[in-house]
Amino acid sequence: MSKVEVVTSKNFDKFISGVAVVDYWASWCGPCKMLAPVLEQVADQLPTVKFGKVNVDEESDLANAAEVQAIPNVCIYKNGELVDRIIGVQPLAKIVETIKKHL
User: Which of 4, 29, 82, 87 is catalytic?
Assistant: First the structure.
């Protein structure tokens, strides 16, 4: 079972409370497909963090609000505020390190 939730405009504000990681992606994006299993592994390592994904084609307003200009684009939110982002496919260790700075 996936530890990464689908995030939409209906549940976004509630989802980004606390520490939340949101992957902005698209089904046609090769690098996004490469990153997905890595984020599942990160979610296993950080059980107190919420992990979600936003399909930029279906939720363009959310992508625009986060100023997403390239995908994959992983945004880290803390208490509803965007505090960091990781653009492109990065190694698992770098993703974990970036998220842990905000715990």
Answer: 29
